[in-house]
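Blinded run. Sample ID left blank on purpose so nobody reads anything into the name before looking at the predicted structure. Input follows.
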Amino acid sequence: MTLTVETPTSDTAPSGTVAETGSAPTEPAAPAPFPRRWLGLIAILAATLLNLLDASIVNVAAPAIRTELGGTASTIQWLAAGYTLALAIGLLTGGRLGDMFGRKRVLVVGLVGFIAASLACGAAGSIELLLAARVVQGAFAAVMVPQCFGLIRDMFGREMGKAYALFGPMIGLASIGGPILAGVLVDADLFGTGWRSIFLLNLPLGIAALVLGAKTLPAGAPTVKGLKLDLGGAIVAAVGMCLLLVPLVEGRELGWPAWSVAMLVASIPVLALFVRGQVRRARSGRTALIELSVFKKRSYTSGIAFVVVFFGSVTGFSLAVGLFLQLGLGFGPLRASLAMAAWAVGAFIGSGASAGIAPKVGRKVLHIGLAVMIAGLVALWFQFGSDSAPGTWALAPALLVFGIGMGMIFVPLFGIITGELEDHEVGSASGLLESFQQGASALGVAGLGTVFFSQFAIGGGAAESMGAAQWVTGLTVGLTVVAFLVVFGLPKQAKAEH
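Blinded prediction complete.
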């Protein structure tokens, strides 16, 4: 991404130093770029792409999976939810492992495990084996993903913004393009693999990332020596997140039974216990699972609030559009994916535009992107309120505008959020940030999905589904306005790295 916190000049002290006393800085300035950084970045992009694709492609292939392997509607839902839960629960520990053992080493372990789990998914002979393999996939993704941001910082130093300028567009395209790819692969039935091809695709991509990463990524020593994993804290965090996320995934499908509400309520004291334990460990000088110092950074705390609102609304809205097209209009997987293709194209265009605009306007690029998103959403709101059902390409112009605005946000966002972090904070902070993102996505799916189905019953027809989609779109407009306001908490000063 092209933005970081403004680089200090010779007359200003770097972040975290005490210029007034003349003491030496505790952390060095941004390191010189790593010689093989661009080849290493390709490996990191490939690893990130693996996670993004597998988090989004299963929903499109779910009907074909159920036809072959069986399973209830709830079981099929867990094909996506099992991955998401394992990822969200493991991210805090995964980020800390990179600090303890070195980011390259942990990334390689994560890649090997992810490739093996993908092979198990593609070869699964029963729905139970597929579910188990998906959970293992998510667990190894949690080991792999938090290392990516830290490795980019390690390799690019002062040129970190240039790396993020490529990272942002890839995130946008993968998030929206994943379902399109899944629809193409399932319909193509390459070599008779059908839905299995969406998992087998990970093998060449993962092996390429593994080989290239092993040769080009900096070895790197542990960020802080003497760290010990807080296993007790990891267990409490896992229990708390399960109590929170399981009912969010299952509650809507089952009509919010009493046990789901009880789990949500119970998650509050358990997560509070986790936070208290982290504070006590930090005060006593022991290693905490989370570097609590990151919450002193305004960019990070405001960034987490933004991520929760932004990703929750985008993920929930994406689900609602997919449900509208397939359940309301009767589109098949491929046709529904093509109908949403303009969204992916817009994300790519917006990412490229943001790379040029962001260095000039700073955090205002987020406001511009959100305003463009709102324009696209308003156009969609009017379309969903019309009397006639849209055809395959009717939604394309509005989705294109919405995608452009979304793409403008992906490029600078993570650079702004992590720009003030010290090296020893990156692993923990990245894992926590990703964990919030996954939780927000689950919340968005549960919340906006509930709104959609409260207005639409399966088999209700196009008119009823259009009314449901209009409700969801209106709520997404409101959430986007909230995100617009949250941006004011992010740092004002930022500039491009050259």
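Unblinding after everyone has recorded impressions. The beta strands are 4-5, 494-495.
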